[in-house]
Design a protein that fits this description.
It is a single chain. By secondary structure, this protein is mainly α. The chain is built from seven helices and no strands. Helix 4 (about 135-165) packs parallel to helix 7. The protein is globular and about 60 Å long.
Length: about 250
């Protein structure tokens, strides 16, 4: 009797339609990548915690009317952003240690380059006072760090998809594809809501209070979409790190 037609046959761990190939489980290289993923995951958690604490603290301090305390909250939040920026940059470099066959390392390194470019643009932008005729260029430069951040997020989502495909984690690969589309949707919505819509609203409604009221609902939608993407990003990073850890343990055993 053909085994493929046997209903009592045990399920195969690997799809027989896929070629049986060596996954090159180099424990040290994957361990470095796992540490990089966990570094990024920890940075995401720390940033979430600091952001919530800073938000609550700023509301309380604003109600109490203490500018010194508000300045302290702002300094802590700024230091948290800088620390997380450096932590994610280091994590991206560590994630680039995966085997070349995965075709994922270059995407992690590209994301790290974009992260470094953001830092350079922020420093140059803080020191540059544009002339009146260069207001459009100044507007583009102010938005460039966010666009570069979106590009880095897209590159790392592709990294997660390729890495999970290499590890034959189909569910995680599908999640990475969804995450990629979510990041693209966030970027497109930001361009439309954060850049195009304000210009249109101010042209139609010169009264700024009316323009801001109209933009409130699209801004809320963008915030919710960003929150969903952030949570899915963090969970997929953690899942991929745990997958690598289990694979390395099986290899060692």
């Amino acid at each position: 009797m053909n085994d493929s037609l046997n209903p009592y046959q045990a399920p195969l761990a690997i799809d027989p339609s896929e070629p049986a190939e060596d996954l090159s489980w180099d424990p040290e290289r994957f361990t470095t990548a796992r540490r990089g993923l966990m570094t990024i995951y920890a940075c995401l958690l720390v940033f979430s915690f600091v952001f919530l604490c800073s938000l609550v603290g700023s509301i309380l301090m604003g109600t109490m009317g203490s500018p010194v305390a508000f300045g302290f909250v702002l300094i802590v939040f700024t230091l948290a952003i800088v620390g997380n920026f450096l932590g994610i940059f280091i994590g991206l470099l560590m994630c680039g240690s995966v085997p070349r066959e995965s075709r994922a390392a270059e995407m992690s390194r590209l994301a790290a380059i974009m992260q470094a470019t953001i830092f350079v643009v922020l420093i140059l932008g803080s020191r540059w006072n544009p002339a009146p005729g260069l207001s459009l260029i100044a507007l583009v430069l102010r938005q460039l760090p966010i666009l570069l951040g979106g590009g880095a997020a897209i590159c790392f989502a592709i990294y997660l998809r390729r890495l999970n495909q290499f590890l034959r984690q189909r569910a995680a690969e599908r999640s990475a594809r969804i995450l990629l589309w979510l990041v693209v949707a966030n970027l497109v919505c930001y361009v439309l809501i954060g850049m195009v819509l304000p210009w249109v609203m101010l042209s139609l409604f010169p009264n700024r209070s009316v323009s801001f009221a109209v933009m409130g609902i699209p801004g809320l939608v963008l915030s919710l979409l960003l929150l969903v993407t952030y949570i899915k990003y963090a969970s997929l990073v953690r899942l991929t790190a745990r997958t690598i850890e289990r694979g390395s343990i099986r290899y060692a055993g």
